[in-house]
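Complex record, two chains
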Amino acid sequence: MTRRTTIAVAFDGAGWHPAAWRDPSARPDELFSPGYWIDLAGTAERAGVDFLTIEDALGLQSSVFGAVDDRTDQVRGRLDALLIASLIAPTTSRIGLVPTVTTTHTEPFHVATGLQSLDFASRGRAGWRVQVSGAAHEARHFGRRTFAPLDLEAARRGDSALVRELFDEARDVVEVVRRLWDSWEDDAIIRDAATARFVDRDRLHYADFEGTHFSVKGPSITPRSPQGQPLVTALAHQAIPYELAATSADLVFVTPHDDAQASSILGEVREAESHVGREGRPLSVLADLVVLLEATPALATAALARLDAEHGAPATSDALIFAGTPEALVEQIEAWTDLGYDGVRLRPARLTRDLDQIAEWVLPAFDRSDAAGATLRERLGFERPANRYAVEETAA
Amino acid sequence: MTTTRRQVHLAAHFPGVNNTTVWTDPLQRSQIDFGAFEHFARTAERGRFDYLFLAEGLRLREHKGLIHDLDVVGRPNTLAVLTALAAVTRHIGLVGTLSATFNEPYELARQLATLDHLSNGRAGWNVVTSSDAFHGANFRRGGYLEHADRYTRASEFVSLAKELWDSWSPDAVVADRASGRFLADDAITPFAHRGPQFDVEGRYNVPRSPQGYPVIVQAGDSADGRDFAAEHAEVIFSRHSVFEEAQQFYRDVKGRLAGRGRTEDSLKILPAVTFALGDTEAEAADRAREDALAQVGPKTAITVLEQVWGVDLSDRDPDGPLPEFDPDPDASITKGWAPRYPNAVKIAQDWRARSEAEGLSIRELVISVAGRQSFVGTPGAVAAEIDRYVQERATDGFVIVGTTSPHGLDEFVERVVPELQERGVYRTEYEEGATLRRTLGLPEPTEVAEEVRRVG
């Protein structure tokens, strides 16, 4: 039996190339309008994309890591990703919706209920890309914590105290969010007129989380959602984030630049899993790729060169920038799934044009007929998880 | 000669997690599945309502240390559902309660601006504050806020949010491919705010939304609350639905506007009301009675009494007399409700006097004080009453609260709305492309901002 290849697409502004908004296919004056996002989601869904992600941050985009710039030649400004996903939810019926939601300055309680509500509105297609915010200027937007400018070298070496703190906090946030998601048992609403009880409060549970940065009592205000636990994902580039993913997530996005790296990163992810003592299903691992697709290699190279010229420099990315033909991309995807990857998350360089290319030329190369069910978890082959509190009771 | 009749504004309140919602009714469906919200929103839009309204949950209510299980429990995240509803509606305003205590301005401002963008200008924000540790236990902030600081925080929060919403110029995004300019010069003004509640600075990251600001709604009723309303609110979600009280409230609040350079039309006052309809007055009265009995079951009657007395009264017979002793004014055994009975001793004495004078049992008494439907009658009579309130400046309209989810509004829309339209006091169509602010007949936000600045 061949494994079903997971294909996700990452939405961000006009696309992942900084000059994408200048492409003739772009709709740069509609980036903040509902129709733009609904159209893109419809295209992705019709093509059989398993899920889409939506980027977000608590500050302006910047060409400088961890700081603001004053550039006026790139897309600036973005809408709240969870709410874009909420808008898309009633207009779609199959595609998974995975917004980025930051753990650093936000309220875990609102994060939990927001994602549960997305799960209700999408009838079981919600996910979450967990993200930390280490930027000093973003902390000043909230004024409750002061971060020193991130020491990039220390972060690369994996011994940045701030990075460790942010990811420890993220782990706590995911933990409390997961507890809140389980804080109602599935059958807590009984509507028993005979005893005048709407809920059985024995099937509601306090989260009772106390951590370094916050404590949350619970239960959630929101009943357990269709998936029980929406799918938790994280993008990771090194050991500390791999460990967060291994501890807290169901699926991880990684950024190999070639086959050798693809193998070594997969090994590091598995190592992180054993390091943190992960039990149950291993992480699904998707490779991230920035993709620019044209009919011939020459056309693709020329299109990238044109964008780079408009940008004023070759675009850079944490992920491999793949400019080529759809056939070559399919081969690349197959090479990595052969190494043990579950699939890819494609970041369209030009969101409008490259999403169309992906829909028309890439997805048909993969079998899309065997999605196991209507929820995102089912689509990716995950079980609907048992409720941790109900399990405890059975065991007692 | 014809005079233009004042137009009625209507909002639709999604049935709440209190005993107004009759979950034992066979018509009651899920209060949490998205289909319930979708039906409710489509019904309200079919009824040409100005907006629909969602309250906010911050913690499940507790009574005597246990999660309260007699009423509907469980609701969604306000912002997520409102934004999802933007996709299935075209005209109706989307208004939600969002706490100024348990949110941060930068994040909430961008979420509300997102809702406004994604609904093409239909967002509204009911600003509330909470101060207690009970709700705070679910949040980073905790429950540290002094009661007296609630409106200070709300006011500082809204002012800061407006600074963020104003920080992108209206024509910031030029997106001109040829010149390669995405943003205009000086598109984004950095913000810096230092106050008792917030000390923040930086750059906001959402372009100005269609309305500029969401419509600001406010529900508080204290003198501080009324001042806050006079400064910031564009709609007051009022508790005063009895005609004379409503007129007094209307005069008081609208009277505060002139001192702030605002016109009477820049603030709408909409009290929450329930209704019971019938083909005859007698049938409507019967239905109101049925609703009241369902809303105030024996256990609920005792719960309401316990909320006033502040002690356990579970050994009392709901069909028997009220307690002969007075409440302990400092005792409280209920958590998570808005304070309903600030002067418990006096209320208890009034209730006891009334129950003795009229021979009412505990349950009958609670029904008579708390289970009453606001408008009871034939659709024509209810429409006439609504019209009278508006023409005689007791309100600008109402927030309609149905008793079941999601069908509780259907009958009002099918039977009362046509009567209002017949009377020429209610729209028959929405204006195409109108923002919520325009639907409500409110001035544009730039004018509001100028008014506030002129005073400040």
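Note: Chain B touches chain A through 76 residues (CB under 8 Å).
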